[in-house]
Specification:
The protein has 11 helices and 21 strands. By secondary structure, it is α/β, with parallel strands linked by helices.
Length: 407
């Protein structure tokens, strides 16, 4: 039994980087055939975007902005050049956000994630993600079939009928949320149904704490996690090494300072930004609003792509202070105006029935009057007054949080 889905997973990282960025200019040209990308990327020469540094100079497209953009120019906000009929399936997610599925094999890039979780051709897979309007069920269904598995399109709920299917087809694999897997196992134990055929699982869509991981293992199921979105499909996934998540092939993943498009220092927590290389439906620097950090080195499993720690919270920390919104990008602007500062964190509290802001800022070498200068910048940028507290370098947590609402 081979350990890797294909040779792409173990190639030299420099070779992968060269391949991705040699393909990116043509994807950019295809993207700019769509009116919204033509406007967003106005003045960009696709031929010049051949490195991470060049890519980082392009604007980000925030997923949180997609509902309004799709409503203004349905169905895809002007970010897709081809007509809806050129795709295989058309979905919607809460927002609403409208997502098309391509006609190619494994359009969501999930087969290698299932392979890393132990799924193999000929396996029967119980897929409990929803098939109704949203893409979740079809992401895992198409991925399993691309790997050569047979899929039971069970969807969520209706445990009694699921037991009948499991006992008849004896699936070895499960895909769905970790919560529903536990519900199935607990319900089966209560009513005496046999679900022992399930030996491995790829779970997503909900938290999978260590306690639940250990419970699955004690019940004879090797369960691994995947991180994906309805826009991109499978972004990253756990491997047998159990050490972070490996980024999927054919994606360029960046980690940026929340509220900006600026890459973080390696190892720092930041927002996930993804560029996909599907010319039919490209995503150029899509900011997902999710936080993570990169892990150093290659995975012990032999896969050589970038690894991330997994989901570490949300980057959109916008909060309202004294009736006015304060946003992460405003805190980032303060940092740009004072380059001698390190990490910044705006702490919002209450005192005397009033909102209070305190900007905590790392500074290795504070100088006279710096606090008052930063306080003036804080007021200029947010239109609100606040205190400034300078702390030593490395004193603020590396968790990606730039606004902490402690009210």
């Amino acid at each position: 039994m081979t350990e890797h889905y294909d040779a792409l997973e173990t190639r030299d990282p420099a070779e992968r980087e060269a391949d991705l960025f040699s393909r990116l200019p043509e994807v950019l040209r295809q993207a700019m055939a769509a009116p919204a990308y033509a406007n967003l990327l106005r003045g960009t020469d696709p031929a010049s975007v051949t490195s991470r540094g060049a890519l980082a100079r392009l604007p980000v497209l925030r997923k949180s902005d997609l509902p309004a953009l799709h409503k203004a120019a349905p169905p895809f906000g002007g970010f897709v050049a081809d007509k809806p009929g050129s795709f295989a399936r058309l979905f919607t997610s809460p927002g609403p956000i409208f997502e098309p599925e391509g006609r190619q094999a494994d359009p969501w890039r999930g087969a290698r994630a299932l392979f890393a979780a132990g799924f193999r051709p000929g396996d029967v897979v119980l897929n409990t993600f929803s098939y109704h309007l949203t893409p979740g069920g079809f992401i895992f269904d198409a991925s399993a079939r691309a790997l050569g598995c047979a899929v039971i399109p069970a969807g969520p709920g209706n445990t009694e009928q699921q037991f009948e299917l499991i006992e008849a087809y004896r699936p070895v694999g499960y895909s769905g949320t970790p919560d529903f897997l536990k519900i199935l196992l607990d319900a089966a134990a209560t009513v005496g149904r046999d679900v022992s055929s399930i030996k491995r699982a790829l779970v997503s869509g909900a938290a999978f704490p260590k306690s639940l991981q250990e419970e699955m293992k004690s019940r004879g199921i090797e369960a691994r996690q995947a991180f994906g979105t309805a826009d991109l499909g499978m972004v990253a996934f756990e491997t047998p090494a159990g050490d972070g998540m490996t980024v999927n092939e054919d994606l360029i993943l960046e980690i940026v300072k929340p509220g900006t498009g600026d890459p973080v220092v390696p190892g720092d927590v930041g927002e996930i930004v993804v560029t996909s290389l599907d010319p039919h439906h490209p995503w150029i620097r899509l900011a997902l609003g999710d936080l993570t950090a990169a892990l150093p080195g290659n995975s012990p499993c032999g896969r050589t792509n970038m690894r991330i720690k997994g989901w570490m919270g949300r980057a959109d920390q916008t909060t309202k202070v004294k009736g006015m919104f304060v946003r992460p990008e405003q805190i980032a602007e303060i940092g740009k105006r004072h380059p001698e500062l390190g990490r910044l964190r705006l702490v919002v509290t209450r005192a005397g029935e009033s909102d209070v802001m305190t900007l905590r800022a790392e500074c290795a070498a504070p100088r006279d009057a710096l606090q008052s200068e930063i306080a003036a910048t804080l007021r200029a940028v947010t239109k609100l007054g606040g205190a400034v507290e300078l702390v030593g370098a490395g004193q603020l947590p590396n968790d990606g949080k730039v606004i902490a609402d402690e009210r």
